[in-house]
Specification:
12 strands, homodimer, DNA binding (chains A, B), DNA-binding, LacI/GalR-like_sensor (chains A, B), about 15% strand, alpha/beta
DNA sequence: TCGGGCGGTGAAAGCGCTCTCAGGGGATGA
DNA sequence: TCATCCCCTGAGAGCGCTTTCACCGCCCGA
C-alpha cells in the first residue's frame, strides 16, 4: 500500500538538487531560480511526490486542520438542520483558507477523554465548539491545552463573560424570542405557553427570558412552561404536557423549529387546529419550519452565516486572515440579529 | 499557546528514566516493571504530558484517523438523513476502535484537488467513500495513492466488478424496488410511474431495474419515468412532470423517501389524494418516511448498520480487528437485504 | 583589477517519537 | 559459589521535513 511513497530526498536526487531546494519549491518556490524550479517541479510530477504531512507538521507545528466539536449525539447532530447549516458555513470558510474540517462528535461521557486527548495531541490547530452545556468540561480542557477555540453560542459557565480572550458567535436570542411573543400578543393571544430548550444552554435560557420580557413578567406562569431538548420528540412531549396542564392555552412559542414541529404533531393528534385554536411560533427558520403543515411562523437567524463567522474568527486567531476581512478588525465576539418570519401557523 | 508542551524527554527527565521507558509506558506499559511504570505515570500526570501525534505518526506510519469522503454538496449531506444514519453507524464503529472520523465534503470540481492531496498526504489511514457517480475521479486517486478504501454502494465505474480487492457495502436495491412495485401491483395499481435517482449511481439504476423486473418489461414506458436527484425538490419537480405527461397514473414509486415526500407535496398541491388517487412508495425508510402525511410506504434498508459494516470492513483491512468479528471472516463486499414496510401512502 | 554585496544553493541540525539492539543485574540451577 | 538465562532498561538511529547558516559565484562599482 503506502509502499514507497517518494520522499523529498528522492525528488532531490531525481532533480539533481538538494532537499532544501525541493522543499523550497514545494512550498511556493520563493528564492529558487526559474530554471531549477521547473526542473524540480518536473521531478515532483514524474515521481508523484506528495509531502508527508506528519513530518511537515512535526517541524512547522501546524496541521492545517481545525476541529469542530459537537457535544451531542449523532442522532441530533445529523437530524437537526441547525448543525447542518452551521457546518456548512464553517466548511465553506475553512476551505477558502485551505484548512481541513475535522468533525468530532461526543456521544457519551466516555468520549470526553478521547476527544480531549485528541485536541491536546496537536492534531488540530484550533477548535470550534458547539452546543455546550453549562458544566461541560470541554472548554476548560481546550483552555488547559492552550488550543485556540471559538464557541458557537454565548458560553454560560461561571466567569465566562470575564474572559477577555473568549471568542464566540451568538445570535440575539432574547430579542428574537421577544419579537415572537409580541407577535402572538398582537394576534390577540392571551394564554401563551412556551416550550424551552435545555436551560443549561444560554440560547435556551435567553429565549425564555425574551418570552418573559414580552409578557412583562419576572417569572413565567409555571403552568405555561414546559421543557424540551430541542428535538421534535421533546416538543411533542412538552406540548402534550402543556395541553394537560393548561387546556385553555391559545398559543405556544417553541424554542426551536424542531420542537415546534413536534408540538404541531401533538396538536394535530389532539384535534386542535393551528392557528385557529392554537397559534404556534418556532425558532431558527430552518427547513422544517417552511415545510411544516401549516408552515411555521418562526424567528430567523442566519445560521450558516454564523458558522462562517465562527470559522472566520478562528482563522484570524490562527493568523490565517480570511480574505475580505480587513486585518485591523478587532478579534471579538459577534452577536447577530434575529428577525421574525410570519407564515401560516400564527 | 502550545507554548511548551512537555515532550517525552521532559517526562523521562522528571521520572529519572530514559525516553524509551516513558514511550513504553505511554503505549501500554508492556515490559516495564510495575514500580517504574507507576513512577513514569505519575510524571506523565504531573507534567500533563500528551504525545505529539505528528511525531508519532511520522515513525509509526499510522494516523489513527479515517476519512469519510462524500461527493455531494453539504446541503444534501446534512439535509438527507441517509448520510446522517450512515455516518452514525460509521462513527460508532470507529470510536470503538479508537479511530477518529474525518469528514471531507466535496462541493465543487475544484475540491477534488484539495481532497486528493489530503488523502495522498498521509493524513489518514484509510477512506470511506460515498455517493460516487460513475465517472468520479476519486476512486482512481485513492487507488493511485494506495489508500485502503471501502465504498458505500456498489461502484459503477468500468471494470470495478473485476477488481478482487474492491470492498463495498451495498443493499439489494433491485430486489427492494421489485418488492415495492409488486406491492403496488397487488394493490391493483396499473399505471405505476417511477421517479429515479441520478442514473450514474448504481443504486438509482438498480432501483429502476427492479421496477422493470416487477412490471416484467425490458424497457419502461418513457411517459411513466421521471428523473430526480434524490432530493425532495427533485421529487417535487419529477412528480409534476409525470402528472403532466401521464395524468392517469395511479401510483408512483420514488427512488428515495426524500423524493417521495417531494412527490407527496406536488400531489397535494395538484389535488390528488394519497393513496386513494395515487399510491406512493418511497425507498430508504428514514425519518421523512414515517413523518410524512400520509406516512410513507417504503423499502427499509438498515442504513446505520451499513455504515457500521463499511467502517468494520475498513478497520479490518487496516488490521484493526473490530471486536466481535471472527478474524477469519474473509474480507469481501457485503450486500444487505431490503424489506418493504407498508404504511398509509399505498 | 580587486573588494564587497547579493541571490541562490547545499549541508546539517533538529522537530518528538518509536523501536532495535546491546548490556546490566538478579534469579536460577548445578 | 559460579555460569546461564531472562527480564528490564537505556543508548541511539532514524521517520521526512523545514530552516538556519555558511558558502559559492557572479555582478557591480571603484
Amino acid at each position: 500500500m503506502h509502499g514507497h511513497r517518494p520522499t523529498l530526498e528522492a525528488v532531490a536526487a531525481h532533480a539533481g538538487v538538494s532537499r532544501a531546494t525541493v522543499s523550497r519549491v514545494v512550498n511556493g518556490g520563493a528564492g529558487v531560480r526559474k530554471a531549477l524550479r521547473e526542473r524540480v517541479e518536473a521531478s515532483v510530477a514524474a515521481l508523484g511526490y506528495v509531502p508527508n504531512s506528519a513530518a511537515r507538521s512535526l517541524v512547522t507545528r501546524r496541521t492545517g486542520a481545525v476541529a469542530v466539536v459537537i457535544a451531542e449525539p449523532e442522532t441530533r447532530v445529523f437530524s437537526d438542520p441547525f448543525f447542518a447549516q452551521q457546518l456548512r458555513g464553517i466548511s465553506r470558510e475553512l476551505s477558502a483558507c485551505d484548512t481541513q474540517l475535522l468533525l468530532l462528535l461526543l456521544e457519551g461521557r466516555t468520549d470526553y477523554d478521547r476527544v480531549g486527548r485528541y485536541l491536546a495531541g496537536g492534531h488540530v490547530d484550533g477548535a470550534l465548539m458547539f452546543s455546550l452545556h453549562r458544566d461541560d468540561p470541554l472548554p476548560s480542557m481546550a483552555n488547559a491545552s492552550g488550543l485556540p477555540t471559538v464557541f458557537g453560542g454565548r458560553p454560560g459557565w461561571p466567569g465566562a463573560e470575564d474572559d477577555p480572550e473568549l471568542l464566540y458567535v451568538d445570535t440575539d436570542n432574547r430579542g428574537g424570542a421577544r419579537q415572537a411573543v409580541e407577535h402572538l400578543l398582537e394576534r390577540g393571544r392571551r394564554r401563551i405557553a412556551v416550550i424551552t430548550g435545555p436551560l443549561d444552554q444560554t440560547s435556551a435560557q435567553d429565549r425564555l427570558d425574551g418570552y418573559r420580557d414580552a409578557l412583562g413578567v419576572a417569572e413565567a406562569d409555571p403552568a405555561l412552561v414546559a421543557h424540551g431538548d430541542f428535538t421534535a420528540e421533546g416538543g411533542e412531549r412538552a406540548m402534550a404536557e402543556l395541553l394537560d396542564r393548561s387546556p385553555d392555552l391559545d398559543a405556544v412559542f417553541a424554542g426551536s423549529d424542531l420542537m415546534a414541529s413536534g408540538a404541531l404533531r401533538t396538536l394535530r393528534s389532539r384535534g386542535r387546529r393551528v392557528p385557529e385554536d392554537v397559534a404556534v411560533v418556532g425558532y431558527d427558520d430552518l427547513e422544517p419550519a417552511a415545510w411544516a403543515v401549516p408552515a411555521l411562523t418562526t424567528v430567523r437567524q442566519d445560521v450558516q452565516d454564523m458558522g462562517r463567522m465562527m470559522a472566520g474568527l478562528l482563522l484570524r486567531r490562527l493568523g490565517l486572515d480570511p480574505e475580505g476581512v480587513p486585518s485591523d478588525t478587532p478579534l471579538a465576539p459577534v452577536v447577530t440579529p434575529a428577525r421574525l418570519v410570519v407564515r401560516d401557523s400564527s
